[in-house]
């Protein structure tokens, strides 16, 4: 049974003017931000978890970092982005928010930067960057998550491509989808994590560290 879009959207929480401005900017400039239903699910899971620190891989314009900070007023967030134009824009948006003192933006490749100079551990990690690199992101940053911590991963469905046979995937995206599928198989059988896939937005994976 499928629910109508209007019915689903009736449950979406209202956002302030700054967030609405960011949503409009993302739409007009084709910047990928987390879909609203999935963002609400993520924030509700975070409210239940109550992490004191979050590491985000993939800042874009700072939208999801600000949404998480809004949901968790006592949480500090470190977010990494390699695109300098988006870093500057994210900093501008964040500076206009009430969470400006709780969000740290690091410019650089998430596979190369040293976040331990900022925080040595994180209660939660949110991965929403290069889809073909999810395995490498996970392997690098899961070591900073203690037992009982959670790693949240967006875009696991990848607009339906993850559910297709590779021959039906556009050639330019096959390597990415192959890597994403390999990661999904790997994490779902990983002995150190209890992982659950939520079919919301573009697919949200939640991995609880044992």
UniProtKB/TrEMBL annotation:
CDD domains linked to this entry: AdoMet_MTases
Superkingdom to which the source organism belongs: Bacteria
The UniProt record lists the keyword Methyltransferase: yes
EC number: 2.1.1.-
One example of a Gene Ontology biological process annotation: tRNA methylation
Record InterPro entries: Cation-dep_OMT, SAM-dependent_MTases_sf, SAM_O-MeTrfase, TrmR_methyltr
The UniProt record lists the keyword Methyltransferase: yes
Annotated protein name in UniProt: tRNA 5-hydroxyuridine methyltransferase
């Amino acid at each position: 049974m499928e629910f109508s879009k209007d019915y689903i959207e009736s449950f979406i929480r209202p956002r302030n003017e700054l967030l609405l401005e960011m949503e409009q900017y993302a739409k007009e400039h084709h910047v990928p931000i987390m879909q609203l239903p999935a963002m609400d699910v993520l924030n509700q899971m975070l409210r239940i978890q109550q992490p004191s620190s979050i590491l985000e891989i993939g800042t874009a314009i700072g939208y999801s970092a600000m949404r998480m900070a809004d949901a968790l007023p006592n949480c500090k967030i470190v977010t990494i982005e390699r695109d300098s134009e988006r870093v500057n824009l994210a900093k501008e948006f964040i500076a206009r928010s009430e969470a400006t003192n709780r969000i740290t933006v690091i410019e650089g490749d998430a596979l190369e930067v040293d976040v331990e100079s900022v925080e040595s551990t994180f209660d939660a990690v949110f991965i929403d960057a290069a889809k073909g690199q999810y395995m490498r992101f996970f392997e690098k940053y899961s070591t900073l998550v203690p037992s009982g911590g959670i790693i949240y991963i967006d875009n696991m469905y990848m607009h339906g491509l993850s559910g297709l046979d590779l021959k039906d995937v556009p050639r330019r995206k096959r390597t990415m989808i192959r890597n994403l599928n390999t990661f999904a198989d790997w994490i779902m059988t990983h002995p150190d994590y209890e992982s659950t896939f939520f079919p919301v937005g573009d697919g949200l994976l939640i991995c609880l560290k044992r």
